Amino acid sequence: MSDDDNLFDWETRVRATDPWTSKAAAKKAMRSVTDKHRKVLEVHRAHLKGLTDWELEEICKDHGATYRTRRQELTNPEWFDPPYIVDSGRTKQNRESQHPDNERVVWILREYLDPTLRTPLEPSPPPPPPPTNAHYDKDGHFIHDHCAVCGAPASFGVGVSLLKGELGMWYCREHWPGNGTT
Ligand SMILES: [Zn+2]
């Protein structure tokens, strides 16, 4: 039993919280998935950007109607609702067909098209800068002139990495966490 088997289980096609009526509707629209359907889905699963029917047939080594028709059934909501395979919105020229100028629809697995089913690629926001009680004055001098605890002149820094823009927290000798008395 592989993960792929879940793809063919109508129970996974409706949310568990859906009322029984939508489950019934989903079941009604769920025709049997044949070995030929599985083959088409397998080929499409290996092609994230989708395939024209001609490309599908080329991979299946059969330019008869068999695989094209199975793809049509997998696209048809009367057969499978929601359909497994959908129109990608893109077309591609059939370079090696008998009609090389014809633009063919690129079909794609619904799960590859639906952006809500994809992992977002947005970069994570930068972490907030670490706290500091130091600063640069207007002349660019690094100023750490008072202890974070008592305000006395501060000569001892913690978490200072100026090359990384981390100015650190600064303390007098008495309050410096590094001296072991705090
Ligand atoms: Zn202090």
List strands and helices in order, with pairings.
Layout: H1 4-7, H2 20-28, H3 35-45, H4 53-60, H5 66-75, E1 85-93, E2 103-109, H6 110-113, E3 135-136, E4 142-143, E5 156-158, E6 169-171
Antiparallel strand pairs: 1-2, 3-4, 5-6
Helix pairs in contact: 3-5
The structure holds zinc ion.
Zinc ion binds at residues 147, 149-150, 152, 171-172, 174-175.
Report on the architecture of this protein.
- The protein has 182 residues and is of the alpha+beta class.
- It has two domains: 4-117, Arc Repressor Mutant, subunit A, CATH 1.10.10; 135-179, no CATH class.
- Helix content is 25%, strand content 14%.
- It is built from six helices and six strands, in the order H-H-H-H-H-E-E-H-E-E-E-E.
- The chain has helices spanning 4-7, 20-28, 35-45, 53-60, 66-75, 110-113; strands spanning 85-93, 103-109, 135-136, 142-143, 156-158, 169-171.
- A hairpin with a 5-residue loop joins strand 3 (135-136) and strand 4 (142-143).
- It is rod-shaped.
- The two termini are 60 Å apart.
- Residues 1-11 have low confidence and may be disordered.
- The protein binds zinc ion.
- Zinc ion (ZN) binds next to loops.
